[in-house]
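FAQ: What does a ligand-bound record look like?

Like this one, built around S-adenosylmethionine:
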Amino acid sequence: MSDPTLIAGAAQLGIELSGAQAQQLIRLLDELDDWNQRMNLTAIKERSAQISKHLLDSLSVQPFVQGERVLDVGTGAGFPGMPLAIVNPSKQFVLLDSTAKKLKFIDHTAQLLELPNVQTVHTRAENFRPAQRFDIVLSRAVGPVEQFVKWAGHLVVGGGRLLAMKGRHPEAELGKLPSGWKLAAVHRLNVPTLDEERHLVEICRSHDRL
Ligand code: SAM
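The answer part, i.e. the structure of the complex:
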């Protein structure tokens, strides 16, 4: 079963979902509901809110997901990493969290939905030492921007971007970036069906060209 609100919302974001992708996104929510009966994965239980706040909110950063390798830091139950992996099958997604039980849900669902481009890592971001760094390191709802840069800055390639998904404009957090990093931009995100403010903070190394 696909969902007309999801398909129309994704189209508004410039994403033409295939029938298979629309089904995978809805099955992701079905599995979330199922697992949520046994463990606390999400407080958002109503389907229309899940479509807005989990699926379309995750997909709203699609224009900024560039390069081949993407890391989602503090992915929780897989947001924004899972929806983005579904619509970007040619990119590699690593979904990292310090809580193992949520990653079990992601491993199970990635297998069920046949997503070979999803890999999970159980560690704290600041302790992660991958063999290869990432073009994009992104996070949603994982603490202040300054802390995100401190934890995850070492994980992004030169010229790559750290992307922090935020609600209201995080003015107060932006003056305190660690040295070696600068603000590239703050983008206002419009999430279809969601009447709430959303922003994306884009950060790069001080010497990177904007
Ligand atoms: N990104 C998901 C979302 O928006 O639905 C989950 C957000 S949840 C509020 C924050 C998540 O970040 C938790 O799952 C927590 O375990 C994880 N987390 C917090 N600090 C972390 C760190 N230093 N390294 C890895 N994961 C971390």
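Follow-up question: can I read anything off the structure? Yes, for example: The two ends are 42 Å apart (CA to CA).
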